[in-house]
Specification:
Elements: H1 9-21, E1 41-50, E2 54-62, E3 68-76, E4 79-84, E5 90-98, E6 103-107, E7 110-112, H2 119-131, E8 133-145, E9 154-165, E10 177-182, H3 183-191, H4 198-220
Parallel strand pairs: 4-9
Antiparallel strand pairs: 1-2, 2-3, 4-7, 5-6, 5-10, 8-9
Helix pairs in contact: 3-4
Length: 221
C-alpha cells in the first residue's frame, strides 16, 4: 500500500507549482502577455534640467491601478565599454578619479556616444584615446541598462583583440593611468566585490564566459 503524503494540501500545491516553474522558458520583457498590465501611461513630461552629458525629465504617469505618480528620468545618449584583451591574456584597465564616489576607480575603457554615432566606431575611438591601443578585431559582447530605475542609458560592451599599441590621447579633462591585468585576477576581484563599476563587472564576466566557451569548442573540435 502506497504511503500517504501527510503534508498540507497548500504545501503540496506550492511544491508542484515550483516544479512546473522549472520547465518555464525565459520570456523577455513585453513578450509575455501578462506584461501589458504593467505599463504606465505618460500623462505629461517636462525637462527639469539640461546638462553637458545628460538631461533630467519629470514625468507624470498613470499607474496600472489608475493612481498617478511622478518619475524623474535621466536621458542619456548612451555609452560604450571595451574589454581589450592582449595576446598574453591581460585586460586593459583605466584608473581614474570619480568625483561622485570621491575615489579612484578601476574600470574598463569607456566613453559616451555622440548623438547618432555608431557604437563600434565609438568603441574603437575611446579605446585608442584612453589606452593607446588600436583594435584590429572588435566583437560585440552585450548591452546593459546601467540603472534602468531612473535612467535610459544603455552601455554597449565590446571585446577588442589583435591589439596594436600606438599612443594614448585622452581628452583635455581626462586624467588616467592604464594597467594591464590578467583576466583571472580581474575575475577574482569582481567576485570578491573589489570591482564595483557595473560595466566592468559585466564585461569581465562576459569575457570569461566567452573564453571558457571557446576553449570547450576547441577541445571538442
Amino acid at each position: 500500500m502506497a504511503e500517504q503524503d501527510e503534508r498540507p494540501v497548500e504545501e503540496i500545491e506550492e511544491i508542484e507549482e515550483a516544479e512546473e516553474a522549472e520547465d518555464t522558458q525565459l520570456v523577455l520583457g513585453d513578450d509575455d502577455e501578462r506584461d501589458a498590465g504593467l505599463h504606465e501611461e505618460v500623462i505629461s513630461q517636462e525637462t527639469a534640467w539640461s546638462g553637458k552629458i545628460f538631461d533630467v525629465e519629470c514625468l507624470e504617469v498613470k499607474l496600472p491601478n489608475g493612481h498617478v505618480s511622478r518619475r524623474d528620468v535621466v536621458r542619456h545618449h548612451g555609452a560604450v565599454a571595451i574589454v581589450a584583451l592582449t595576446e598574453s591574456g591581460k585586460i586593459a584597465l583605466v584608473r581614474q578619479y570619480r568625483t561622485a564616489l570621491d575615489r579612484v576607480t578601476v574600470e574598463l575603457p569607456a566613453g559616451k556616444l555622440d548623438p547618432g554615432e555608431d557604437p563600434e566606431e565609438c568603441a574603437r575611438r575611446e579605446l585608442h584615446e584612453e589606452t593607446g591601443f588600436i583594435a584590429h578585431r572588435m566583437r560585440y559582447l552585450t548591452t546593459i541598462a546601467s540603472s534602468c530605475g531612473f535612467s535610459d542609458e544603455l552601455i554597449h560592451i565590446y571585446m577588442a583583440t589583435q591589439l596594436e599599441f600606438d599612443q594614448a590621447c585622452p581628452d583635455d579633462d581626462e586624467f588616467l593611468n592604464v594597467d594591464l591585468v590578467p583576466l583571472s585576477e580581474l575575475i577574482d576581484a569582481v567576485l570578491d566585490g573589489k570591482i564595483q563599476d557595473a560595466k566592468t563587472v559585466v564585461g569581465a564576466l562576459a569575457c570569461d564566459v566567452m573564453a571558457h566557451r571557446l576553449a570547450a569548442e576547441t577541445a571538442q573540435a
